[in-house]
Each structure stands twice: as C-alpha cells, then as structure tokens.
Amino acid sequence: MLSEVIKSAAREPQIITVRGEETAVVLSMEKYKKLSSPKENLVEFMRNSPWADTELELPERPPEKMREIAW
Prior knowledge:
Blueprint: H1 2-9, E1 14-18, E2 21-26, H2 29-36, H3 42-47
C-alpha cells in the first residue's frame, strides 16, 4: 500500500488523511527539493531579470504647488 502511494507521488502529491482530516502530503523528491530550496530575494530576482538593463521612460511631472497653511 505504501509503495502505491509513493509511486503515485511521482505523478502528483498524495494527501494523507486521518479520520477525514488532511494530515500529511507525500511528494516526489523533485517537488520536495524545489519547495525546500532557498528562494532568491526581490533584489536578486530583479537583477536576474532579462529586463534588468532596461531603462524606464517616465513622463515628467509638473512641480507641485505649495499649499497655503493658516496659522
């Protein structure tokens, strides 16, 4: 029975229940390694982006007017 669960986990995660409550999951080693490997942070993600060297052309904004403040 366990060997069937393991073989099925190679195709897709297998949920194990105890008294009808989802308790555990059996994953393929490939999916486990992918989930447990360290993720890059946002800065690393942006630096590794194919668009990292792209300059953004932003429209110029008019200067904001000063507000009058009543004392």
